[in-house]
Amino acid sequence: MFNAAFLPRLWRLSRRRKFLLLRASVALVAASAAVALLPFRKAIVFGSVPVGRRTKVSVEEWMWAIEAAAPRLPCRTMCIEKGLALQRLLRGSGHDAILHYGARTDPEHRKLEAHVWVSLGSEILIGGEQAADFPELATYPPRAA
């Protein structure tokens, strides 16, 4: 549900921050649509675009924009959507971000659970708080063997 209390804060943001929020929102909505409508094998590569030319947008700015936009959108924005959107924005901005996909069986409920996190080099940017609990099954783009 849209929170109107956010509007006054939105208007106080700089043009740059508004632009970042808009780009992050578009990426999150597109990632949500990809996850909802495409087979997993196609949706999971949404963020694996070629690494573009380095831009002046920092990693921290993209992370801020994703985290700020995600809870304010009407679509689903769980770890997979946030991870795919952040990876796509970072790779498009010249950063070789890697999306990690892990899964486990919940010991209490015996259900399969999955988690996504994004790294840049050895640093986990998003989803790191739970990453250690999920054995990594794949990375996107796949690592060279």
Note down, in words, how this protein is organized.
Strands 3-2-1-4 form a four-stranded antiparallel sheet. With about 140 residues, the chain is α+β, with helices and mostly antiparallel strands. Helix content is about 45%, strand content about 20%. The protein has helices at about 5-10, 15-35, 40-45, 60-70, 80-90, 130; strands at about 100-105, 110-120, 125, 135-140. α2 (about 15-35) packs across α4 (about 60-70). A hairpin with a 2-residue loop joins β2 (about 110-120) and β3 (about 125). The protein has one domain. It is built from six helices and four strands, in the order αααααβββαβ. The model has no long low-confidence stretch (mean pLDDT about 90). The N and C termini lie far apart (about 45 Å).
Output the helix-strand order. Answer: HHHHHEEEHE
Radius of gyration: 16 Å
Cα end-to-end separation: 45 Å
Strand order of the largest sheet: 3-2-1-4
Query: Assembly type of the shown chains?
Result: single chain
Q: pLDDT under 50 segments (min length 5)?
A: none
Summarize the main sheet: 4 strands, antiparallel
Mean pLDDT: 91
Number of domains: 1
**DSSP helix count?**
6
Which structural class do you get from the secondary structure elements?
A: alpha+beta
Strand content: 15-25%
Q: Quick one: overall form? A: globular
Helical residue percent?
40-55%
Q: Count the strands?
A: 4
Helices and strands, with pairings:
Blueprint: H1 6-12, H2 15-37, H3 40-43, H4 59-69, H5 79-92, E1 98-105, E2 112-120, E3 123-126, H6 128-131, E4 136-140
Antiparallel strand pairs: 1-2, 1-4, 2-3
